[in-house]
């Protein structure tokens, strides 16, 4: 049975993707900061599920995630989904807290690389895949999204380099498109997001298509319920 590690799995895209993977028969190791919310997700799922509340910025917690996956048989898919905004609501760069920016860099960029490094032996054994959740803010200049977008731009770049250095793995950086999530509501609380799809309506079907495909490493974007390779 294939094994996936999914970070940030207590809500939004992470929760919806975990549910979909479980329905396809994957064994799961799930992470989030909130123990209660993460436990509620696990209660919804059938099959082998290990929940480990904690902070991906903590090296010890990352080691626990990898150890749990090893206990289930290895790692076939590592989903780096956990993210923070750096400011809630988002603010112009002139007002961006440097402490908030540093936290966003740590959680969104440094911690995912740390988790990949810890998981690499198991990923190499399985010839597995790394799925890094990015954003259009990584490549477009949107007012107030500068801090968050910079962290995702860095994530995109090291994803591309990792793909060159680990050619036996598939390394995907994916912009999931517009979604109605608690994170977006926190980022832009005055915006009407009722027209945005829920993660399970568009992003998750597209990600499942990518995961189940023979698509090579690269940066992808969700378009409708499918993915396409990103080009500027």
From TrEMBL:
One Pfam family in the UniProt entry: adh_short
Gene3D superfamilies linked: NAD(P)-binding Rossmann-like Domain (3.40.50.720)
SUPFAM superfamilies: NAD(P)-binding Rossmann-fold domains (SSF51735)
Superkingdom of source: Bacteria
One function term, GO molecular function aspect: oxidoreductase activity
Entry keyword annotation includes Oxidoreductase: yes
PROSITE patterns the record matches: ADH_SHORT (PS00061)
Enzyme class: oxidoreductase
Family designation: Belongs to the short-chain dehydrogenases/reductases (SDR) family.
Entry EC no(s): 1.-.-.-
InterPro entries, alphabetized: NAD(P)-bd_dom_sf, Sc_DH/Rdtase_CS, SDR_fam
Name this protein carries in UniProt: SDR family oxidoreductase
Keywords: Oxidoreductase
């Amino acid at each position: 049975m294939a094994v996936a590690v999914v970070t940030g799995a207590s809500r939004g895209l992470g929760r919806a993707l975990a549910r979909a993977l479980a329905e396809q028969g994957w064994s799961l190791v799930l992470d989030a900061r909130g123990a209660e919310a993460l436990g509620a997700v696990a209660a919804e799922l059938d099959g082998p599920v290990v929940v480990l509340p904690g902070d991906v910025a903590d090296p010890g917690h990352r080691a626990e995630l990898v150890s749990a996956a090893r206990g289930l048989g290895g790692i076939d898919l590592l989903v780096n989904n956990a993210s923070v905004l750096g400011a809630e609501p988002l603010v112009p760069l002139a007002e961006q807290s440097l402490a908030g920016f540093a936290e966003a860099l740590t959680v969104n960029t440094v911690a995912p690389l740390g988790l990949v490094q810890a998981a690499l032996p198991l990923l190499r054994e399985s010839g597995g895949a790394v799925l890094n959740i990015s954003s259009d803010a990584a490549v477009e200049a949107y007012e107030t999204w500068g801090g968050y977008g910079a962290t995702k731009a860095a994530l995109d770049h090291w994803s591309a380099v990792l793909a060159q250095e680990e050619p036996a793995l598939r390394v995907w950086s994916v912009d999931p498109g517009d979604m109605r999530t608690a994170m977006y509501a926190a980022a832009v609380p005055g915006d009407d997001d009722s027209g945005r799809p829920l993660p399970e309506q568009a992003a998750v079907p597209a990600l499942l298509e990518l995961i189940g495909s023979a698509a090579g490493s690269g940066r992808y974007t969700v378009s409708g319920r499918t993915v396409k390779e990103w080009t500027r």
